[in-house]
């Protein structure tokens, strides 16, 4: 399908532009020629690089969001409370503010979706039409978020949900990759393995997520008012590929691998909200859970896909574990795109 007009000259508001998902979206939009606004609670002497117009405001303040969204054709809702503090009290009010601003501007809301909406009744391969019967409190809130977004389509807004596996990437601080597989703030002495041996798991590299979103937005006319797509990302069929890629990136192929001490995570969760939230998602590591990307492939022809070894290397660089590897280094040049994401998981 021929590419339609890009977003040159159009305005996008990115909520969460200082975070991992929002930051990647903001950068990708700017490269595409969008005028990008970011909302942050405090002015800062040094701001993240990029062609972003920063506005002072709070996603919890309806007036701030409405003012920042004036004239916007797109609102990227990628904001989350840090470390999941008061998540259940803040998430829906923030979303309602984005919805109100989208309806007022007849804008499209882009929501990065998760698998938390689903329960085992639709595992292991999940299409966009699957029933959403979550097992957790967080999953139930995610379902309610999407219910409100679909309802907003009838009130003047448009919607694009791009659902992915577990995020990883250079700026993805609160993630299973950085908080679960590795020990934050410490030199790597081992890799934690949350899943059971032989159980597959799905990962999504943030730059690939952003590029996929951009290609979908380039096809605005084909999306319709209420669009939802699933990404395949990096499918680790037996749980060993990600661990091996991390060990290879560190240059330590014999780096020890330890099964995740879930009992300790539950205990730590009594005091640390992040660990409590991670512990609730154990069921997603006990059986294969994979998003079906056939609908995405039918529209785009292929899914953007950075080779896993390079994606992991760039992630570890961004998290401060490794020095940056220049793009023209031999290792980077050897990492040619593989074809995994060009075929659906069926």
TrEMBL record:
Taxonomy, superkingdom: Bacteria
Q: Which residues form the NAD(P)-binding domain?
A: 16-109
Q: SUPFAM superfamilies given for it?
A: NAD(P)-binding Rossmann-fold domains
Q: What Pfam families does the record point to?
A: NAD_binding_10
The cross-references to InterPro entries, in alphabetical order and at most eight, read: NAD(P)-bd_dom, NAD(P)-bd_dom_sf
- List the protein's name: NAD(P)H-binding protein
Species: Azospirillum oryzae
């Amino acid at each position: 399908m021929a590419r339609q007009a890009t977003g040159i000259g159009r305005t996008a508001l990115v909520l969460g532009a200082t975070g991992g998902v929002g930051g990647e979206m903001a950068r990708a939009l700017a490269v595409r020629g969008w005028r990008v606004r970011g909302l942050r609670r405090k002015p800062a002497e040094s701001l993240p690089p990029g062609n972003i117009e920063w506005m002072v405001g709070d996603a919890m303040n309806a007036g701030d969001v409405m003012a920042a969204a004036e004239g916007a054709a797109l609102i990227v809702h990628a904001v989350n409370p840090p470390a999941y503090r008061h998540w259940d009290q803040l998430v829906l009010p923030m979303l309602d503010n984005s919805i109100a601003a989208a309806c007022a501007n007849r804008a499209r809301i882009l929501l990065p979706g998760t698998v938390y909406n689903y329960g085992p009744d639709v595992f292991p391969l999940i299409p966009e039409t699957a029933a959403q019967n979550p097992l957790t409190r967080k999953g139930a809130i995610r379902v309610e978020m999407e219910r409100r977004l679909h309802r907003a389509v009838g009130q003047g807004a448009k919607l694009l949900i791009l659902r992915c596996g577990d995020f990883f990437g250079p700026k993805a601080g609160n993630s299973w990759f950085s908080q679960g597989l590795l020990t934050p703030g410490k030199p790597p002495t081992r890799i934690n393995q949350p899943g059971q041996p032989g159980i597959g798991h799905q990962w999504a590299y943030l730059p690939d997520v952003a590029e996929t979103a951009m290609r979908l937005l380039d096809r605005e006319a084909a999306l319709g008012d209420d669009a939802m797509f699933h990404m395949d990302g990096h499918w680790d069929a037996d749980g060993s590929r990600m661990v091996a890629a991390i060990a290879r990136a560190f240059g330590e192929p014999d780096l020890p691998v330890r099964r995740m001490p879930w009992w300790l995570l539950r205990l730590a969760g009594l005091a640390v909200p992040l660990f409590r939230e991670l512990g609730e998602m154990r069921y997603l590591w006990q059986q294969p859970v994979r998003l079906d990307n056939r609908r995405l492939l039918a529209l785009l022809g292929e899914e953007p896909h950075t080779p896993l070894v390079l994606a992991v290397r760039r992630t570890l660089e961004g998290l401060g574990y490794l020095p940056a590897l220049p793009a023209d280094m031999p290792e980077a040049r050897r990492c040619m795109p593989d074809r995994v994401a060009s075929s659906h998981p069926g």
